[in-house]
Amino acid sequence: MSVSENAMADTSSDLDETPSIECFQNYTAPEVFIQGIAGIVNQEDVESMIIAQKEMLQRFEKTNEMLTNCNSLSMSHLKTTSQEIKKHTQILTELRKDLDSTFKRISTMKTKIMSQYPDLQKSISEAKKKELEQKPVESSSSGSASTASPYNSDTN
């Protein structure tokens, strides 16, 4: 064989080993790339990944459903609790108003009595002094009772 024949034989053998370009002419470049990768990837691995993804999807759906139920329960409890808190707040406000009114009435009554009976005030203050002298000085075990409050009768 001549050199040109050897060269022709080499090129024809190279063309036989590689797929001809004509078979890929009907496909786009991304399709050719995907077909090439598909030949490399193990189908069993792909199937096991799909199964694992489906199982995880089911778990996430269940979790999502549980969280939705939890949120709806929390919303209903929040609604009832907020209504109860509003009622209790209203009751406490009314009680505070009642206590303020009672304190003012008692204070008014005290001032009227003291203005009508000044000697009564002197006897009350003397009785308090005697009572304090008879009782030993106690340590402040009830700290909140000694604080100044309009509801503490000892301050007036």
Automatic annotation (TrEMBL):
Q: Low complexity bias located where?
A: 139-149
A Gene Ontology biological process in which this protein takes part is: lysosome localization
Q: Which domain of life is it from?
A: Eukaryota
Query: Which InterPro entries has this protein been placed in?
Result: KXD1-like, KxDL_dom
Biased region (Basic and acidic residues) positions are: 125-136
Question: Residue ranges of region Disordered?
Answer: 124-156
Every KxDL domain range = 38-119
Which GO terms of the cellular component aspect does the record hold?
BORC complex
Q: Record's family? A: Belongs to the KXD1 family.
Against PANTHER family, the record matches this protein to: KXDL MOTIF-CONTAINING PROTEIN 1
Instruction: Write the protein's name.
Output: KxDL motif-containing protein
Record organism:
Sipha flava
